[in-house]
Amino acid sequence: MTTGWLDSQQMRAWVRLIAVLELLPGVLDAQLRRDADLTHFDYHVLVVLSQGSEGQLRMTVLADRTNATLPRLSHVVRRLEERGLVARFPCPEDKRATNARLTEAGREKLAAAAPGHVATARYNVIDALTPEQLDQLADIADAVLGRLDPDGALTRPFE
């Protein structure tokens, strides 16, 4: 099977998507590091935990919802635990599993970090687009996510 090269329209879209994927994470990470002493992934873990029942999730579920391997997630959660933002404990339903829970300090950190993060997201993405473009962006992302995340693991907690 031979795959054809991208035509000029396809290449234009692809190169711009790659540029956004390369630049946006650094912008988000820099703001959160500067203003909240969190990485973007730390922040994402706290947000996803906050969406869980009583601010807690099984580590395997948290890994799925953050698209992290268990070793990476364990490392990050350990660091957050050392800072008092997250607590780990045995899963009551399955003693072989571990749950993570957002602590009160974690909730406070998240609440303090959220305004700056939202302002950065607004400035760099949301406010750069018209309402029609925002709808188009959501539709485009849904089409791509239909292939990359067909079960909706990464977006389900936010719907």
Q: What does it look like?
A:
Residues 7-146 form the HTH marR-type domain. This protein has 159 residues and is mainly alpha-helical. It has a domain at 25-128: Arc Repressor Mutant, subunit A, CATH 1.10.10.10. Helix content is 64%, strand content 8%. It has a 3-stranded antiparallel beta sheet with strand order 1-3-2. Helix 1 (8-36) crosses helix 5 (104-124) and helix 2 (40-51) packs across helix 5 (104-124). The termini are far apart. The relative contact order is 0.11.
Task: Characterize this entry briefly.
The chain is mainly alpha-helical and about 160 residues long.
Set out the fold topology.
Blueprint: H1 8-36, H2 40-51, E1 56-58, H3 59-66, H4 70-82, E2 86-90, E3 98-102, H5 104-124, H6 131-148
Antiparallel strand pairs: 1-3, 2-3
Helix pairs in contact: 1-5, 2-5
Protein name: MarR family transcriptional regulator
Pfam family, one: MarR
GO molecular function: DNA-binding transcription factor activity
Which key terms come to mind for this protein?
159 residues, mainly alpha, Arc Repressor Mutant, subunit A, three-stranded antiparallel β-sheet, 6 helices, 3 strands, 8% strand
Residue runs with pLDDT of under 50 for 5 or more positions? none
Under the CATH scheme, the architecture of the domain at 25-128 is: Orthogonal Bundle
Going across the biggest sheet, name each strand in turn: 1-3-2
CATH topology of the domain at 25-128: Arc Repressor Mutant, subunit A
What Rg do the Cα atoms give? 18 Å
- Count the beta strands: 3
Oligomer: single chain
Mean pLDDT metric: 95
